[in-house]
Specification:
The structure is a single chain. It is built from seven helices and no strands. It is rod-shaped. The two termini are 21 Å apart.
Length: 309
């Protein structure tokens, strides 16, 4: 198994802010190019139109000068003055409106550019705030992932500690029963029952550890559910734990031997009502009677819990 520091839960992906700065810059660039193109087009049309209207003006003015109105005007200000007045009238009526219209169109194009520019600048502060919010959410996701990683590592470590505790309790219970068998063979009445009681305590410790494993298993997979991670499957399986059935059978066989022997039975009658600090039991007799069924039930529940996912 890898070192615990190599396991991690990756933070959830935070969706970025939908504002596309590339699109905004593209719109600004397009508006500027359109305005510049319109300006160049305006210059070409202006000079071409001015040339055409000057030629047109020449023929129109010549016709007007032949009229009685301009002939009368010519008597007062001279021929050159009449030409000047005609040109001014023509520019005021035709050329000036035409040029003004084209210039207004250019201004409208540049206004579009500045409208886009103003829009981008007005949204700059909003964009900054949303980017900061995105960064905050990313930092929060990283923090949550770190916390969940720590919890998952703690569960792994505590689960393996429970597995080790199961084996330790199993071995100590086995040793206590061996000691009980030795005391029985040596006809040591009280030490025999003390060894029996010690074995029951170790079996109770074994049972306490087994009871916690299904909960650890459930919490472990709830943390990892739907998340990208590098954690292994839950490492504790029924096959990795010792089978307590032989120990329980040996316990009951030794107790039966002691109860059948008159001298051991006398001691038993004196101590069977002694209070014990074993969860679920009040006396030594209750503990001996129920420890086997309790451990077997815990093992069955543990197996169902570990195979449930």
């Amino acid at each position: 198994m890898k070192a615990m520091t190599q396991y991690r839960i990756f933070p959830e992906k935070v969706e970025p802010y939908p504002y596309n700065t590339t699109v905004g810059k593209s719109a600004r660039s397009t508006a500027w190019e359109n305005a510049k193109d319109e300006e160049v087009h305006f210059e070409k049309v202006f000079f071409l139109g001015l040339l055409l209207f000057v030629l047109f003006d020449w023929f129109i003015l010549r016709s007007l000068l032949d009229s009685s109105y301009f002939q009368h005007l010519d008597d007062h200000i001279g021929e050159n003055g009449a030409l000047l007045v005609g040109a001014i009238v023509f520019l005021g009526i035709v050329v000036v409106p035409f040029v003004s219209a084209r210039y207004i169109l250019v201004l409208l194009k540049f206004r579009e550019y500045y409208r886009v520019e103003l829009y981008l600048r007005s949204n700059k502060y909003k964009l900054k705030m949303v980017q900061e919010e995105t960064q905050r959410r990313e930092a929060e996701a990283e923090h949550v992932a770190h916390e969940l990683t720590s919890r998952a590592v703690d569960i792994l470590e505590s689960s393996m500690a429970l597995e080790s505790s199961c084996w330790t309790s199993f071995q100590e219970a086995s040793q206590a029963l061996q000691q009980a068998q030795y005391e029985y063979d040596d006809r040591a009445f009280a030490p025999f029952w003390d060894a029996i009681e010690e074995a029951i305590y170790h079996l109770a410790s074994f049972n306490d550890a087994v009871l916690q494993l299904p909960q650890k298993h459930q919490e472990y997979y709830l943390i990892l559910q739907g998340r990208k991670h590098t954690f292994p499957p839950f490492p504790i399986t029924p096959e990795s734990l010792p089978n307590p059935s032989p120990i329980i059978n040996e316990l009951y066989n030794l107790v039966r031997q002691g109860q059948k022997d008159f001298q051991f039975a006398l001691i038993w009658e004196q101590i069977k009502t002694r209070e014990v600090l074993i969860a679920g039991f009040t006396t030594l007799a209750d503990a001996i009677k129920g420890i086997g069924a309790t451990v077997n039930d815990s093992m069955n529940n543990m197996m169902r819990g570990l195979f449930s996912s």
